[in-house]
Write a structure and sequence with these properties.
Radius of gyration: 22 Å
Structural class: alpha+beta
Number of helices: 11
CATH architecture of the largest domain: 3-Layer(aba) Sandwich
Number of strands: 14
Strand content: 15-25%
CATH class of the largest domain: Alpha Beta
CATH topology of the largest domain: Dna Topoisomerase Vi A Subunit, Chain: A, domain 2
Strand order of the largest sheet: 1-2-3-4-5
Order of helices and strands: HHEEEEEHHHHHEEEEEEHEHEHEH
Number of domains: 2
Oligomer: single chain
Length: 316
Amino acid sequence: MSYVSRDQIERAKSLDLLTYLQMWEPAELVRCSRNVYTTRTHDSLKISNGKWYWWSRGIGGRSALDYLIKVRGLSFSDAVLQIEGADSGSAPTFTQSLQQRFSPARFELPEPNHTSHRVMAYLSKRGIHRTLIDYCLETGRLYESRRYHNAVFVGFDQEGTPRYGAIRGTTSTRYMGEAAGSDKRFSFSIPALGNGTELHLFESAIDLLSFCTLEHLADRDWRQAHKLSLAGIYRPKTEGEDPTPPAALMQYLQCFPQVNRLVLHLDNDDTGRMAAAMIQRLLSPTLLISDEPPKYAKDVNNELMESRRRYGEPSR
């Protein structure tokens, strides 16, 4: 570990993130409105009034030091030295491997395990029907990572190239993350068979699969309509900013221009209801939109689990 002095630490703590990015990484900084910025690498990370907050991960801070540690993954001493280099106007004397962590990440999915037994058991415990699990495994939309046995939900572009990976832990730790370099525009989805014109929207891949399971158990065709996960919570922009719909949703509508009806299945909480209202306001001039949150649960997976508890699985 590199040594840093108390004076270096105090100077690092005093530097705010906006000033740091303006001085050291101006190409990474994107202006959203008069007083609000984001970054090219993480469009859900907002910088305003001397603070920053990464909405998709639920973490934030004030200083550039907080950012380098929590977002970039640097050790405390390396983060201090990085700021020292920026503050002095000289390039930091880091190794090549450390410098590479500051470049936009190349998309890389976790190495797959030779089996998916842990993931299958985890999703079955969450109520997902084996038919859905098998479909996702067979189409490459789901697999088990080798190192931690996480569930990896893969998103593809229109050419069938993987562009996104949502990672969900299969243990009690409930880990949630994304593969390095993931492009949120291409989040986990299940396209309709044929020329479907209806799109159902969810906050997570597990909610999406839960809805498909409910459709399957009710003997309805779960491939009749398009299904899309937003890869996390969609939070409308703060007051004073021009609101924009979720990037994944807009990309999907661009790829499937025949879609003319949108069905929202966002969470039944304040954030989900606010997001649903904003999407309706922004897109109702061009789409027929129906807001259908879970009837007696917080999210669609909770609704599935409650339905299974109440009624069990129909015999086949």
